[in-house]
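Quick one: structure for this chain?
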Amino acid sequence: MIQTLLNHRSIRKYKSDPIPENILSEILQAAVRGSNTGNMQVYSIIVTRDAAIREQLWEQHFKQDMVKQAPVHLTFCADFNRFNKWCELRNAEPGYDNFLSFFTASVDAVIAAQNAALAAEAHGLGICYLGTVNYNTERIIEILNLPKGVVPVAVLSLGYSDEQNELTPRLPLEAVVHYEKYHDFSSEDIQKIYLETENSEFTKNLILENKTDNLAQIFTQKRYTKANNIHFSKHLLRVLENQGFMNHGE
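Got it. Here's what it folds into:
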């Protein structure tokens, strides 16, 4: 398992070979064994193999071809719909129409997703998370017929790899690990932490491709701009309102 973790690569090109049912079942079993809030398991996993539905999802995931290539598409949802209905049938009034409930259910869904990812890689499959789930959430809800109380928060493409990728550079441990308390970074710390990443061939090629002066500008000017962050924040807040997660009790 340690080697599986350390050798993780995001796979964006897939063979059309189907995933055997017993392997897919084991991956899903691994997902539901993940830690979760109060053992409520307030998440759902939508397994999409139908080509027509994946075609619709491909449109919403910025037409990334992995959505159509990979034989299995997994959408992990924060889901209080099932739990609320169970509570009501047991004469227990649910109080989960609020942001905290969405947040905890989202954490549960992401833990399940990562368990599925690890199980898939342990079986020799390739995976890739699709962050685009956050950008066209309303349309994905429509395509997957998600009721109130259910919001997609993580997506995995799943299949046999059709490419050979190098490991993506990662920051050193001192960039992300703090012992006992948080230790803020000096300018010298920042220079040291990002030195190797900024000077890698991978980064140099990215800078040329994006026509920026440095890696930081790729993030702020190209990938995750302030304007887009604000726009899609409003979009997600609207989705949460529509799906019943914004009761502030006022």
